[in-house]
Amino acid sequence: MSASKMDGHRSRGRYTHAEAILGPELCDRLANTKVLLVGAGGIGCELLKNIILTGFGHITLLDLDTIDLSNLNRQFLFKKKDVKQSKAMVAAHTAGAFNPNVHIQPVHANIKESQFDIEWFQTFDIVLNALDNLDARRHVNKMCIAAGIPLVESGTAGYLGQVQPLVKDRTECFDCIPKPAPKSFPVCTIRSTPSQPIHCIVWAKSYLLPQLFGENEDGGSELDEAEKQGENAQEIAALRKEVLAYNVVRNSLRSAETTDDAAKTVFHKVFNTDILNLLSMADMWRSREKPTVLDFDTIMDGSFVVKEPSKSGAAPANSKQKPNGHLNRDANAPISASQKGEGGLKDQRELSLQENLSLFVSSTNRLASRLRAGEEFISFDKDDDDTLDFVTAASNLRSAAYYIERKTRWEVKEMAGNIIPAIATTNAIISGLIVLQALHLLRKSYSSLKNVHIQFKPSVPLSTVNLCPPNPKCGICRDTYTKVQCDPARVTLGELVCGILGNGEGEDGGTGKRDVSVYEDKRVLSDPDWDDNVERTLESLNVTRGKFLTIVDEEGEWETIAVALCELPPNHPADGPALLLPSSLPLPPFNPRPPTPMPPAPSRKRSAPGDEVSEVEPSAKRAKTNGTSLPELGSPSKKRRLEEDGLVMLDGGADKIEDDDVIEID
Ligand SMILES: Nc1ncnc2c1ncn2[C@@H]1O[C@H](COP(=O)(O)OP(=O)(O)OP(=O)(O)O)[C@@H](O)[C@H]1O
Ligand SMILES: [Zn+2]
């Protein structure tokens, strides 16, 4: 048998099952389908294997990262020898062997780079996200909306997971519903009245560690400002004292003569002086258990006994919590085998108070010596042993002072790193579901598309939710997208905006002259009263390939236009025009304002009640959903409830909450 015949035979054999399930038409089409898979981590590796075996013919696999040892337990395309290599390259190499008919293009890069502009996105038939952060997910969502390419979004968190197909104008986009804010705690709970281990962990990670080893934020000048503005003088004096005290401690950690004494100074300030200060505020402890002042020397020599929480008097604020049994004993007493979690890993052993203090001293010294060796500041990183040891020890010492259960280093890592353990099985289930949704999309079988969730219900482990139509108020998918090809060094902002708006054609041309503001992301580049940038080149305004200009109608009548910037074609003559506009200019939905009511004049005939409303409202709504309302879609509120329950698309780094009175765990 000739080699080519043998290949054909092999190929048919390979796809017999796929063909039986998908039908010959889709099965053949898959061979020519171009897929972009973003992310080669937990979901990405599983998904790559699935789409290769299903027979997707052309796969571009993109990931910015290199392989870490900790990936190996679930990212099965990687082996120990691959650690520190590019994820995209290794995954493509390993999985490529599963099906030689598939062409895989690995790309080691950040999906946000400008080279991945909408023209690049438009070279794909479908995009599959296997990402782990909100920022990249939102970026891909916007690029897919702009490029008009369907996207399957996914996420897992422990045993939970979700798959969400997204199609411009038909379904919600990723940004149609705001994502839940990260967990937060009131500052006073963290600073003065912790009642749970997480409060002490957040304090050690987000307050103490930055105070000692972080960037020196000049609290002094902030206080000067507050004083000028007439804030409470007594409070400011107290805060000033606090800043000075921390400066002394910071300096001692940075001084060349640092010894164990520096750690002792920190300990004394934080677990002794500060707690004594808090105790002096009698009001604070009327309805709460008073904390205990810790003592360095007696903890070190093992004679310190943690005071039992008082059982009499006013009910402590945390009385609803289960009693912290093991704290009602000498904290340095030997810990039983079961308490220690013996048999488990070293990290999973509970440390005695004395051991926590030793860890506090050693980690403080390690961090201090890093500062002295030239590191300017150190911030928390769950994979940085020194910062994790410090947060473990400091949070446990604080827990002891407040009679709160202490946590092992393993638990602290999980809580401080906001880590939900990744589960290979969940990733595998989700990756299978992604393929099913991708196949519906390729078949254009829109009524079969579903949001699918894995839930904690053994009887119904998967729940499906009908898709919601786009949110008419969404600032991403309701814009009208277009693209221009240009040389940003030769085109001015004014030329581009006038070109896109077709200025000079008059109102009835649909894109006539209007008052607009122009933005790049959140930057205002011009508005009707400010035209300083209009004559400047796009390049000088840092508006280049891969970015979007957003043109907003000041009257609010025309919907927003988003213009994606692309390069001139490769064969474009050097003396050719610097700006190539799209062949048809964007025509965003137009919602004319109701005419301004005229002052009542006896001669004017009154219009029938509701006239204006019936003319304006429905057309505006039609325009915003582009006439594609889907009768079978579920309600947005149902989906929101699911999101609140189910921790979907987990991450949180990107979104910031604005309330100053809370501390986020990111
Ligand atoms: N902007 C981006 N561009 C390209 N790839 C990205 C981008 N952001 C995240 N990724 C990739 O998405 C993948 C997500 O996979 P996963 O959630 O399993 O994370 P991980 O980093 O492998 O594991 P863990 O965070 O649990 O250690 C990672 O490989 C990551 O490098
Ligand atoms: Zn949207």
TrEMBL record:
GO cellular component: cytoplasm; SUMO activating enzyme complex
Cross-referenced PROSITE patterns: UBIQUITIN_ACTIVAT_2
InterPro entries from the UniProt entry: ThiF/MoeB/HesA, ThiF_NAD_FAD-bd, Ub-E1_IAD_1, Ub_act_enz_dom_a_sf, Uba2, UBA_E1_SCCH, Ubiquitin-activating_enz, UBQ-activ_enz_E1_Cys_AS
Keywords: ATP-binding, Metal-binding, Nucleotide-binding, Ubl conjugation pathway, Zinc
Every Ubiquitin-activating enzyme SCCH domain range: 342-413
Annotated THIF-type NAD/FAD binding fold domain residues: 21-474
Coiled coil, from the record: none
Pathway note: Protein modification; protein sumoylation
UniProt biased composition (Pro residues): 585-602
GO molecular function: ATP binding; metal ion binding; SUMO activating enzyme activity
Binding site for ATP: 39-44, 63, 71-74, 87, 132-137
Region of interest called Disordered, as start-end residue ranges on this chain: 308-347, 577-666
One GO BP: protein sumoylation
Family: Belongs to the ubiquitin-activating E1 family.
Subunit details: Heterodimer.
Protein name in UniProt: Ubiquitin-activating enzyme E1-like
Native source organism of the sequence: Paxillus rubicundulus Ve08.2h10
